[in-house]
Amino acid sequence: MSELKGQLLAMIITLAAFGTIAAVLIPTFQKSAQEVGREITITDSNSISNVKASANMFEI
After folding, report:
1. Mean predicted confidence (pLDDT) in 5-16
2. Over 60: is that where the pLDDT of 13 sits?
3. Cβ atoms 40, 48 nearer than 8 A
4. Among 8, 16, 28, 49, which residue's beta carbon has the most beta carbons within 10 A?
5. 48 three-state secondary structure
6. How much is the pLDDT for 15?
7. Residue-wise pLDDT tens digits, 19-57
């Protein structure tokens, strides 16, 4: 019975750890993606233009 309790405790701790990490990382990545989305544009010729520093333009 104690083995089962130990395994359940380990699963709960693991899920709590991954939940905490996800709660921190997901908003961080969403914020970064929004910032990048505001700073770049895709032109009609399918090139990416960095609005913040327009000298840095490259083709995909």
Report:
1. 97
2. yes
3. yes
4. 49
5. strand
6. 98
7. 999 999 999 999 998 888 888 877 777 777 776 654 455
Pull the structure tokens for residue 31: 């914020």
Return the domain boundaries, the chain. Answer: 25-60
**8 Å CB contact between 41 and 52:** no
State in Å, rounded, how far the first CA of the chain is from the last one.
Answer: 59
**Tokens at 17, concatenated:** 């750890």
Sign of the CA dihedral running 57, 58, 59, 60:
negative
DSSP letter for 56, please: -
Q: Write out the two tokens for 4.
A: 């089962």
Question: Whole-model pTM above 0.90?
Answer: no
Contact of 48 with 57, CB cutoff 8 Å: yes
